[in-house]
Amino acid sequence: MISVKINTKEKHDVSPYLYMQFMEPLGTCDSSVDAAWDFTEQDWYPDVVKKTQELAPRMLRWGGCFASYYHWREAIGPLSQRIPMVNYCWNGMFNNQVGTHEFLDFCKRVGADPLLVVNMESDGRMNWAHPKNGTDRFGTEAEAAEWVDYCNNPNNAERIKNGSPLPFGVKYWQIGNETSYDANGYGAAKTAEVTRRFAARMKAVDDSIKLIGWGDYDLKKEDTSWCGRMSQIDDIDLIAFHHHFTPEGPDAPFDGVEYRKDYARAWEHMQRARLSLEAHIADMRADCGGKKIAMTEGHFALHGRNRNEILSSWGAGASYARILNVQMRNSDILEIATMADFCGNVWQVNALMIPTPMREGITYLQPVGEVMKLYGTHVGKKYLDVCYSGDIDATATKTENTVYLHVTNTSMTTAQTLSIDFGELNGSVKAAKMYCISADPEEEITPDNVNAFKPTEHDVACESITLPAAAVAVIEITLN
């Protein structure tokens, strides 16, 4: 029996954006946005909208590397008049049929707040700013400020002319993306200087917006000043970082389908994946000067360029559950976080998979999507301390008189029996319910088995709760 002691004294607010998603046109790498858009009907595929409503992300981000050569005005106005563009990072063409209006309409339909990434001088990547085809992809602070005005000014004539008389009210904006990851881009000092200019110009248009500046370390960790410099800019509200990670160890069995030869070994490696995120957040915490941080992109980065099939197995879902618990444990400083790309038809790191050609009713959630849905739709607004020992991983939150325990069984083979202890409040438990995903860790989701990892619902008694091997669950407890 594992005793799980929950202290109902509320610690801090929990952001609603810890299970966000991000949308980026990925060109020839993964159809992503194009796979979700019906070019005949000039609208989002209903199946994608419906499945995203089920996933229920509270925030969607538009951008990524794509933002470093994106001109937002090319994707507004009549669809027939929009200007196609080369997708320099991901190859191929993007036709700009999905732009500001279409993205924000999608956010409204699925109940998500938008986050837009602006083109910050191409992050200093002059090969993208001025490519060989002679086009100018360089983004200025004036362009960024005009986008804020277009979205948020009630009287913006250009937006009204394009069919949206009411402002969109976009609150969150990110300046720059992965600037530190490219030796050809701006360094930390230049990025801070440019970000300061952009932020001042954007907030002069709307001082109610929240701005996110790029503050992650360069990949070689030769310059550790990025986060500290960004923390000194008054107009920056949050500091962005990304976390793409591979389970550590030279013997990690992730070449192709190597994991199938000894899944237990793969399980152990994936269970340790959370450790690198813990270290990364600790580094950001030490240098952020008290500002909140935003992990606006994150996922496994296994061999196979985001296509490793183990990510379709339930073992990956159980590993992601522990990673989401790391995010929750750092929710005092972490305001925005994700652990999956949003949608597509190729990459296994997507939360939502779209069969191509589109087959209505077959769009499905990957294991990471199922876990993000489970945790994100059953979560409280206040963080609680929780104490336990044994083969589980757990965090707790609370809203009014309901406590939510997010728990995963870290054993691949052995069930665990839990006893929930509220101390002096034990007698105040009115009811308890468990939403549990239990599956063979090696089982994989496919278009022919889209319901493989759906949670089951059980009434439980806090004195004795059985958590199956490799299971991920939310235990929802109502107190008198």
Topology, pairings included?
Layout: E1 2-7, E2 21-23, H1 32-36, E3 37-38, E4 43-44, H2 46-55, E5 59-62, E6 85-86, E7 93-94, H3 100-110, E8 113-118, H4 126-129, H5 141-152, H6 157-161, E9 172-175, H7 188-205, E10 210-214, H8 226-231, E11 238-245, H9 263-271, H10 274-287, E12 292-300, H11 314-329, E13 334-337, E14 341-344, E15 350-353, E16 364-365, H12 367-377, E17 382-387, E18 392-399, E19 402-409, E20 416-421, E21 429-437, E22 456-459, E23 465-467, E24 472-479
Parallel strand pairs: 1-20, 2-5, 5-8, 8-9, 9-10, 10-11, 11-12, 12-13, 14-15
Antiparallel strand pairs: 1-17, 3-4, 6-7, 15-16, 17-18, 18-19, 19-24, 20-23, 21-22, 21-24
Task: Give the number of helices.
Answer: 12
Structural domain tally: 2
**Strand order in the largest sheet:** 22-21-24-19-18-17-1-20-23
The CATH class of the largest domain turns out to be Alpha Beta
Helix content: 25-40%
> What is the correct CATH architecture of the largest domain?
Alpha-Beta Barrel
Q: What distance separates the N and C termini?
A: 25 Å
Task: Give the CATH H-level superfamily of the largest domain.
Answer: Glycosidases
Mean pLDDT equals 96
CATH topology-level name of the largest domain: TIM Barrel
Q: Which structural category do the helix and sheet elements fall into?
A: alpha/beta
The description of the largest β-sheet is: 9 strands, mixed
Gross morphology: globular
Kindly state the number of beta strands: 24
Estimate what percentage of residues fall within beta strands: 15-25%
Poorly predicted parts:
none
**Overall radius of gyration:** 22 Å
